[in-house]
Amino acid sequence: MTRTRAWAALAAAGALALSACGSGGGDGGGGSAGSTPSAGQEQAHTVELPKLPGEKLEVSAVWTGPEQANFAKVLKEFEKRTGASVAFVPAQDPIVTFLGTKIAGGQPPDVALLPQVGALAAAVQNKWAQPVGPEAKAQLEANYSPGWRQLGAVDGTQYGVYYKAANKSLVWYNAKAFEAAGVKPPKTWKELLAAADTLSASGTPAVSVAGADGWTLTDWFENVYLSQAGPEKYDQLAKHRIKWTDDSVKQALTTLGELFGRKDFLAGGTSGALATEFPKSVTQTFTGGDRPAAAMVFEGDFVAVNIAQTEAKVGKDALVFPFPAVGAKAPVVSGGDVAVALKPSKGAQALLTFLASADAARIQAGAGGFVSPNKAVDFAAYPNDIQRGIAKALIAAGDDFRFDMSDQAPAAFGGTPGAGEWKALQDFLANPSDVAGTQARLEADAAKAYGN
Fold it and tell me: How many angstroms separate the CA atoms of 452 and 445, rounded?
């Protein structure tokens, strides 16, 4: 199967899985009858870990709130099985800068989970990263497709384990708000704008946009661009082989401006969107009954973790549909977090081995808001039909997916708050009519970061 055909097949598989769950027939909190293990049920271990009594490890990631709490359950199991103790050290974006400071101070964490491919490349270039050991490599070869292994490699050497993946082409919606307005999930961009118009006219702003977090705006752009310009152009722009002043970028920004330019579509208007951080963008969509702050919010499968902080139930009150097709095909953008050892220790390699196993992924899958690229994870581990459908579509895609464009870029352009693409798109949200100015700023920053 060609890459383009498989990309289309993934979109179709994801749409099928989500439409089947988004009708309200999903079970919300529990799985299919008899398929999901109970919370306390013992699971057979799929990987042997060394005994590490008294060893102390530190792990860093840019995770907070429930995502961090759920990962703590994974670390607790590692402690139980090895006798080591593990401390979680919250990192700040850009994580490369954070790690550079820790390393310069002689206190690097043993393992870091990096949210960008560019950050992995930087860690290797700076000689911080340790190659993956034989035990972790064996888990990778048994449990991961070649594409996910290659994403964790630099110049042919395996440095990372992709512990967490994400389908970043999803729109979550408040079922009561949609029902009250008589709106159905849209399949095309034109239908999305029509639905937004109807929702806003009914008294509920259509979309909650997390404009305070620039990374969410890069995801908006990437989905529009991938669907409209196509995968070949997407790959070229991701590598800066075409300029951000290209007409395809102009077209995508103009299209995105059709939504961002309607203040009545945005929760809190333009100023409200620019002041809204990601967690709030989700929770305000699923509080307030049929009159929430907004009727829908765009982001990946991990949104489920934030929905869990409200009274809404995934599969009942909170439903989901694939990002609408802007061009001929609906987009499917993936992301992920790669675990890398920063110390040449037995404990760091043992933790990488555990994170590459089905044992670790199964724990966090059961907590919700998490999808693993590990094909050995039983789909029954996921807590509801919606998340099972997302996981199945990811695994079915194999190696044929498009990875988050900003995460592939140098961190200075694609992964730094207040700079590069994040800042340019925040400025665009503030003034969506300035397409040419946005393109010029993006190209100037990209040329500097890529060195060309």
Answer: 10
CA dihedral 98, 169, 217, 399 (to 10 degrees): 50
Give pLDDT tens digits for 170-215.
999 999 999 999 999 999 999 999 999 999 999 999 999 999 999 9
Rounded distance, CA 43 to CA 242, Å?
49
> What residue ranges define each of the domains in the chain, with the CATH number in brackets?
56-167+343-402 (3.40.190.10), 170-331 (3.40.190.10)
- Dihedral sign for Cα 210, 214, 219, 221, please: positive
Distance CA 400, CA 319 (A): 26
The closest of 321, 303, 301 to 188, measured between CA atoms, is 321
User: In b/e form, how buried is each residue of 256-270, taking b as 16+ CB within 10 angstroms?
Assistant: bbbbbebeebbbbeb
pLDDT tens-digit series, residues 214-250: 999 999 999 999 999 999 999 999 999 999 999 999 9
- pTM, two decimals, is 0.81
What is the distance of C-alpha 178 from the center of its chain?
A: 25
Contact 279, 164 (CB under 8 A): no
